[in-house]
Amino acid sequence: MTTSSESIRASELQEWLVFGELEERSKAMFSNSLLETGSLQRAAKETERFLEGDAVFEIDDDGSFEAMVSARCGLRYFSGVDAERASNIAHATCRALDNQIKRAYDTLPPREALHTIDNVWNMVEKTCELAAARSRLLLSKLPKLESVKLPTWFEDSVSRWDNDDREMLNPGSLDAARKIVCCVAAEFPGLTARVSVGILGRVTLDWYMNDLRCCWMIEPTDLPFPATRVYEARQEPHGKMQTRIIHDMHSVINALRDSAKESNDN
Which domain of life is it from (predicted)? Predict the structure, then answer.
């Protein structure tokens, strides 16, 4: 026989489960609407209509959003970040900092210019430290990446380096490259690269692909693996070179997966 209190608890549990699904569906609704309309305001309004009843859905200038829904057992609140919006804002902020550095260099006396650049540099480094700390915590929550034995093509290439290459090499870069290649070989067993020593002693991997140029320069990082520091330069046929820095092995694998797909499609 079910008591009244047990029925109430069961009802509340059911409502929490329904709300969990509602939260996921409303976030998906917002993202899809934003992609279709390109308007934050329209996406927010459509999500409000989707939630129905006593609901409020708002988005801030930094790309974060929040919603409050009235349920029988009280108000339910959730929030999130629209990745595309946040990325665009971050890009605009970095461009503004770049311009500030350039203007200081071009227009101010050396001492004042150096002081201005130092202030900007200080703010950027604090942000980078925060990004590194949060990334380290997030990486610990992800499944461990598959890794295999270091491929012979990599060691064979290293063994052919001359004395100049070995003197210029950063040993930490070679260590990081070995770990990265072991993970890449697990995901792409047939993929090979030309291995060389690049600027500042970094190990360079120039991947052999059909019609797409994809080159990595690997630099050691203070954070434990799978944190990385990979400078990627990618060029599609008859396209301009695109560059970026990749900071974790999961993103490295995703980037190489995208490059391999584009290479096979061409």
Answer: Bacteria
